[in-house]
Amino acid sequence: MRWLPTILVGLIVLAAPAALWNPAFSSYPLWLDDYVYTSWSRLGSQLSRHFASMHNGHITPIFLVETHLLARLAGSLESLPSVLGWGAYASLAATGAMVGVVVARETRRADWGLAAMAGMTLSTAPGPAVLWYAASQALTTAFVMAAMLLALGCWHATARVGWLVAALLLAAAAPFCWSAGYTAGLIGIVYVILSREGGGIRRRVLGAVALGAATAAALGLANAASGGSVLNVAHDAARASAGPRTLRLVIGHVLRATWEKLVFGNLGLDVRTSARQAEILTFAAVGYLAWRRLRTPAAVRAPGARTLQATGLVIILANYLLIFATRGRGYRYDDLRALGWYDAIPHMGAVLCAAGCWQARWARAEPGGRPLAAPGPRALGLVVVLAVALFTIQYPRSRRVLFEYDSRSGLAAGTEVDQAVANLVARDWHSRARDQRQALARFDALAATAHAEGWQPDAIARRAAALTIRGAPADSPGYRLSDMITPASLDPNP
Fold first, then answer.
1. If phi over 0 gives left and psi between -120 and 50 gives alpha, with beta otherwise, what is residue 401?
2. Exposed, middle or buried, 264 (CB in 10 Å: 0-12/13-18/19+)?
3. Cα distance from N-terminal residue to C-terminal residue, the chain
4. Is residue 388 part of a domain?
């Protein structure tokens, strides 16, 4: 019973983002790649055929299985958008809960874990990955990475091989949720080396080598499944980014994204920086932190804090570097700013880093070995105050993010978001979702008729081509919208 108030506060924190992103969840529309992933995975025959297919440079069998399960839960295509929307929300909530558990375990403070949970979920940084189901791959990957850190921490504490095996499986699985998961091995290595519960140099080396091998095995498997495309992309990105001018461009993207999205964005501010401004801010921050560390006596430092700080920092840098080295080197940052789903995993790193900084500031004694106790009323009250403050700060910016996504439907981008515009956005979200549900209901009716009369797949494709769905991409090689409704019993290649 002593943990009941803590659980209730945690549930409230995990439920609050539904209000932050309303009206998205009351009328959830599908976008572009949502139809591709659904057509590849809704039916069992399509899932097996596309299990190792590459889309936009990603091989995502785990995400395809997740989509398949959600589609089965939805039952009909008409119900699919709503179920996928809540699936994206569940990915955010699960990631927030896992991050909270990691922080609570590392700091031995359950209230700090709840605060980290609030920081992960009540932010606009991961919002675009919630508003677009296909982009929720980033949140699924973040959850797997956080679970890997938890398993590594348990392995350090207990020395049980089962925890290490679980961590290695999670590190190998992360790339098959989304390509940013290739950084999981590096993140785990940093955590293993710096963990205060490392258990000696031999165990640290064993963990680091095993994590590196798990990532290499995942890379080799993905490359074999793609016919060599994965390593070709990596090689081309490394060669193209090797020049000093391109390297500085990529680093400039990383610094600008860090300050704009993870610092100012989490303060509820839309700030646009130049590369030079981002460099100046970074040098100032590094100088200040170095000065503070030199002034802090070693006897009062919290050694465990460096694990969270370093791990979070590596998550930010490794993921942004991977993203901008492969996708951003040929673009100005102004053209990439709206691709907010790239910020979901770095935001998790920012939360871990902030928790480590908070621990370093206030934990004057090393908490290792202290049992995790249920927080008292005062600590829980402070968590609630923090959650309310975050919601209040982020709510206005969430309206602007919603409007930015709504600009895909033709509304003028850059318009200041006042209440009238916010109401217009809400109406447009409802209108788009309603149109899609009606179109998907017609697809359901077509599927029922095709199954009852025994149509062949080509006949279904011809009839489906006469139907349109708002937001669906045109048919392209490897993708047909009619694949969502072709009964498996009629599929010529089950």
1. alpha
2. middle
3. 52
4. yes
The token pair at 158 is 């207990």
In the chain, what is the greatest distance between 2 CA atoms, to the nearest angstrom?
80
SS3 content of the chain, % helix, strand, coil (to 5): 75, 0, 25
H/E stretch holding 443 reads: helix 419-453
Q: What is the pTM of this model?
A: 0.89
CA 310 vs. chain centroid, Å, equals 20
**Residue-wise pLDDT tens digits, 9-22:** 999 999 999 999 88
Q: Quick check: bond before 494 cis, omega within 30?
A: no
Q: In whole angstroms, give the CA distance from residue 301 to residue 298.
A: 5
Q: pLDDT by residue (tens digit) across 86-143? A: 999 999 999 999 999 999 988 888 999 999 999 999 999 998 899 889 999 999 999 9
Q: Is residue 456 part of a domain?
A: no
Provide the domain count of the chain. Answer: 1
Query: Domain residues for 275?
Result: 4-30+79-394
Backbone angles phi, psi at 262, to 5 degrees: -90, -25
In a domain, 46, yes or no: no
- DSSP structural state of residue 411: P
Question: In 3D, which of 204, 12, 3, 181 has the Cα closest to residue 104?
Answer: 3
Phi, psi torsion values for 470, nearest 5 degrees? -60, 125
* CB neighbour list of residue 97: distance below 8 Å, 6 or more residues apart: 10, 14, 117
Among 417, 392, 393, CA closest to 404: 417
Domain-embedded: residue 469: no
